[in-house]
Fold:
Amino acid sequence: DSGVTQTPKHLITATGQRVTLRCSPRSGDLSVYWYQQSLDQGLQFLIQYYNGEERAKGNILERFSAQQFPDLHSELNLSSLELGDSALYFCASSDDRSVGEQFFGPGTRLTVL
Amino acid sequence: GQNIDQPTEMTATEGAIVQINCTYQTSGFNGLFWYQQHAGEAPTFLSYNVLDGLEEKGRFSSFLSRSKGYSYLLLKELQMKDSASYLCAPHQGGKLIFGQGTELSVKP
Structure:
């Protein structure tokens, strides 16, 4: 158990819909990272937040957005969903005080029908 | 930019040794991580190299050559449970850039 929690574990929805994925980092970790992992692709970095502020952006679509709240939990919002958005979405956290090791949550499996 | 290359698949026998290579080209390199990922599960941390040389941790060792942009993960005394995907991830400015991963199959 990494100490990172993600909800829900599974999500099934239809094209055009909007969903919100939630992540709680390890206690004390200020950084939260979001990744997307499709069947045919590796882990793709989406976005990083540090203590409530966006720190780095990767290959995140304009239909996707994220935020980190004062209690440090984070949400990833996916809108106008397409079939190709079906993937595992992982959240990871780190304390940024050590070497930058990231601890991954169990993931949310999103299926868009 | 980032370019990470590792073999797609490898097969090895239980009890044997296997070496998984990774070459990378990244800007702002801060070190390199190796993660293990079983199908459908979260990646778990294996090792981190920031300086050149070999880091040993039990059955797993990792090597880094910064000048050559090269790393390898060495797994000894292979067990069936080692069947998984192994991800090479250079650390760049706080971000981990993951390769496609090497799918290792351990056969009896």
Q: What stands out?
A: The two ends of chain A are 31 Å apart (CA to CA). The interface with chain B takes residues 2, 31, 33, 35, 41-45, 48, 55-56, 58, 88, 90, 96, 99-107, 109 of chain A (CB under 8 Å). Chain A has no helices and eleven strands. Chain A has a mean pLDDT of 92.
